Amino acid sequence: MTTPVLQVRDLEVHYGLRRKRRQALHGVTLDVSAGETVGLIGETGSGKSTLARAVLGLVPTSGGRILIEGEDVTDHRQRQWRRLRRRGVVQYVFQDPLRSLDPDLTVEESLAEPLLIQGVSRREAGVRARTLLDRVHLSADLLPKVPGEISGGQRQRVAVARALVTEPRLIVLDEPVSALDSANRVQVLEILKELRDDGVALVFISHDLGSVAGIADRIAVLYQGELVEVGAAAAVINEPQHPYTRLLVSSAPTLRDASATRAEREELRALLSA
Questions:
Q1: CA distance 135 to 157
Q2: What's a Pfam family in this record (predicted)?
Q3: pLDDT tens digits for 55-89?
Q4: Residue 223 domain flag
Q5: Do 70 and 82 fall into the same domain?
Q6: pLDDT tens for residues 104-149?
Q7: Local structure of 110: helix, strand or coil
Q8: What distance in Å separates the CA atoms of residue 255 and residue 238, rounded to the nearest whole number?
Q9: Are 71 and 137 in contact (CB under 8 A)?
Q10: Which of 24, 147, 226, 254 could, after both became Cys, cross-link 210 (CB 3.0–4.6 A)?
């Protein structure tokens, strides 16, 4: 049996000092395999971004284990994480590409930078930058432009291209389409489907169940730091088991059953607060 690209086991993350310590993640267990897209759903404060940052070594863990391609990275020091990142095994796509892309670098320079760090020649890096733009359905005319000179949808696709430059096995995407209009949202989602077909493992973080319904193979629901439901996307959407998942489904405009009344949603909220 093939080892999952990402394995999270009983993960615990706490913030703050002892007296004011707050638990951000509690006993989270999740696998993501090659060529699989897992949608990580939950409202603001549920722990989605904390889980992503823990997987990337950006926040310390309090317990549990994280393995990437079978390598236990839970207790990696900064130098070990730097080496892993330079290998490009795992990449992160931020919600706001205007902030994640260096405003002073051209598109070509942004795409070439990770390759130059790896020791690739500048000429080869330039060739691969052009190839990557084509992969995300952008014209090479954008290469000499800086982020402020291109549209939001184009910037997000450049951010995806930059994540692909090191040929990662795992990409974590934090709300990658929430700031885009419908046309650009469709384009980015189509690109993500192509990546999945190419065997890349994807973790798609969103507060909106509707955004991931058409792309995720499985959906994992976080509520107050706990993973309350994980299953095939169709099963989670059509037969949600946890009250919080049912609330998310009933509140999603594109998924909501016409029979789901406001009173029923209030009843679900009451169950969650009990």
A1: 10
A2: oligo_HPY
A3: 998 888 999 999 999 999 998 888 888 888 777 78
A4: yes
A5: yes
A6: 999 999 999 988 888 889 999 888 888 888 888 889 999 999 999 9
A7: helix
A8: 9
A9: no
A10: 254
DSSP state letter for 56: T
Q: Is residue 29 left, alpha or beta, with left meaning phi > 0 and alpha meaning psi from -120 to 50?
A: beta
Cβ atoms of 52 and 203 within 8 Å: the answer is yes
First to last CA, the chain: 42
The full length of the chain comes to 274
In sequence order, which residues have a C-beta less than 8 Å from that of residue 247 and are 6 or more positions away?
265, 268, 269, 272
Q: Which of 119, 149, 167 is the last residue of a domain?
A: 167
How many CA atoms does the CB half-sphere of 128 hold within 13 Å? 21
**Judgement on whether residues 152 and 173 belong to the same structural domain of the protein:** no
Place of tokens 């070594």: 57
Closest CA to 65 of 14, 4, 5, 10: 10
Same domain, 81 and 206: yes
Q: Which domain holds residue 79?
A: 1-89+169-239
Cβ(153)–Cβ(98) under 8 Å?
A: no
The span from the CA of 121 to the CA of 149, in Å, is 27
> Which residues 6+ apart lie within 8 Å of 66 measured at CB?
6, 7, 8, 9, 11, 54, 55, 72, 73, 74
Domain count, the chain: 2
Domain membership of residue 131 (yes or no) is yes
Same domain, 83 and 208: yes
Whether residue 106 is found in the same domain as residue 24: no
Lowest mean pLDDT across 31-35, 69-73, 262-266: 262-266
Question: 67 with 174, same domain?
Answer: yes
Same domain, 47 and 182: yes
